[in-house]
């Protein structure tokens, strides 16, 4: 404010007359201030505001959806881990003992008729084998007794 | 009564009632826009800031308490945004010439209608002088005058909004109106002469 203006501005009267003084001061400039119109917002103002609100809420909804998805995943994580462990175990077993496939099936067993003599010879062989296996045990027993 | 209704509407917004917000938006979009336009002097900026005001109202709905009038709360947000904008931008307002139009292409708003081009130019010049006189007021006086004269807030509301006492607001207003009266004295004289003639 210019110095000249300050000199022209009267002091503010304190007390009960202050509101009257304000009213008078306001009325003195009110017609001039009324000439200053400030217009109105564009016709789509409300729609813009509401659209911005919806746009703000949409990403929040997406984030909430992701959080819910992660929570659901968290809930089934135990089942997931168990399933993964079962798969690894199954794969390991398959590597050690491959499943029967037409390629690795054994060739068809040969079937032939046996004569009574052949059976006799087979039984004799079994007896010999039996004696052979029992012999080291008796020798070991002998050595133990010797000590 | 209307203020109570505004608070009631806002409480309904707080409870999740979106149509109540749309009603408040419709009710206050013009006064909030006009206040901001007078504060920042740009229709485009005023519109952007007014949108931000309503967005903030909506965002703050959960914390709304009807301890003060809804309009006090609304204009507190508006004032805060306008002053922040003015401080942040620190722009030097270009003087509008008579043939200038505001940046969004809308003509300068004058009260008179059905007037000649010459009268319109004169009216624009008068309005520009009034706008500049208000602009030159100290920040608090400007806010107080705009809220008191145009938005019709009472002393108590303005005091609450500016975090000051009622007597301080009265003093601000008196000095502001007197300052405007002195600055615009020749316009007032011209109006009186024209009315008499």
Oligomer: heterodimer
Poorly predicted runs of chain A: 142-147
Note the total helix count of chain A: 5
Question: From N to C, what is the helix and strand string of chain A?
Answer: HHHHH
Main sheet overview of chain B = none
- What's the N-to-C terminus distance of chain A? 129 Å
- Helix coverage percent of chain B: over 70%
**Principal-axes shape call of chain A:** rod-shaped
Uncertain residue ranges of chain B: none
Overall structural class of chain A, as computed from helix and strand content, comes to mainly alpha
Pair of chains with the largest interface and how many residues each contributes: A-B, 36 and 51 residues
Q: What would the average pLDDT of chain A be, to the nearest integer?
A: 71
Taken in chain order, the helices and strands of chain B follow as: HHHHHHHHH
Summarize the model shown.
Chain A is mainly α and 147 residues long. Chain A has helices at 3-8, 18-34, 45-75, 77-96, 116-146. By secondary structure, chain B is mainly alpha-helical.
Mind explaining what this structure looks like?
- Chain A has helices at 3-8, 18-34, 45-75, 77-96, 116-146.
- Chain A has 147 residues and is mainly alpha-helical.
- Chain A is rod-shaped.
- Chain B is built from 9 helices and no strands.
- Chain B is globular and about 55 Å long.
- The model of chain B has no long low-confidence stretch (mean pLDDT 86).
- The chains are: A mainly alpha (147), B mainly alpha (197).
Topology at a glance:
The complex is a heterodimer of chains A (147) and B (197).
Chain A: H1 3-8, H2 18-34, H3 45-75, H4 77-96, H5 116-146
Chain B: H1 2-14, H2 18-40, H3 43-59, H4 70-89, H5 117-135, H6 139-150, H7 155-161, H8 166-183, H9 185-196
């Amino acid at each position: 404010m210019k110095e000249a203006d300050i000199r022209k501005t009267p002091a503010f009267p304190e007390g009960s007359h202050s509101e009257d003084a304000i009213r008078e001061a306001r009325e003195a400039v009110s017609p001039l201030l009324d000439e200053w119109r400030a217009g109105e917002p564009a016709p789509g103002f409300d729609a813009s505001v509401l659209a911005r609100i919806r746009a703000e809420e949409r990403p929040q909804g997406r984030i909430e959806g992701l959080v819910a998805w992660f929570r659901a995943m968290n809930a089934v994580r135990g089942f997931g881990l168990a399933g993964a462990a079962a798969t690894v175990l199954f794969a390991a077993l398959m590597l050690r003992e491959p499943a029967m496939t037409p390629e690795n099936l054994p060739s068809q067993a040969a079937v032939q008729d046996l004569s009574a003599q052949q059976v006799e010879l087979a039984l004799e062989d079994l007896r010999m084998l039996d004696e052979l296996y029992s012999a080291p045990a008796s020798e070991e027993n002998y050595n133990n007794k010797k000590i | 009564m209307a203020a109570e209704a505004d608070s009631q509407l806002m409480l309904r917004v707080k409870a999740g009632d979106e149509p109540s917000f749309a009603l408040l938006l419709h009710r206050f979009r013009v006064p909030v826009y006009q206040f901001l336009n007078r504060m920042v002097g740009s229709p485009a900026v005023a519109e952007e800031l007014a949108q931000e005001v309503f967005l903030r109202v909506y965002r703050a709905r959960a914390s709304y308490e009807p301890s003060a009038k809804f309009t006090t709360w609304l204009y507190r947000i508006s004032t805060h945004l306008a002053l922040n904008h003015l401080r942040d931008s620190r722009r030097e307002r270009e003087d509008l010439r008579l043939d200038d139009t505001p940046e969004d292409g809308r003509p300068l708003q004058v009260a008179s209608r059905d007037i000649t081009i010459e009268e319109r130019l004169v009216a624009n010049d008068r309005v520009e002088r009034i706008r500049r006189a208000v602009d030159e007021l100290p920040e608090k006086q400007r806010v107080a005058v705009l809220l008191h004269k145009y938005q019709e807030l009472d002393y108590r509301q303005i005091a609450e909004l500016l975090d000051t006492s009622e007597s301080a607001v009265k003093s601000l207003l008196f000095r502001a109106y007197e300052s405007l009266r002195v600055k615009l004295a020749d316009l007032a004289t011209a109006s009186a002469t024209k009315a008499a003639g």
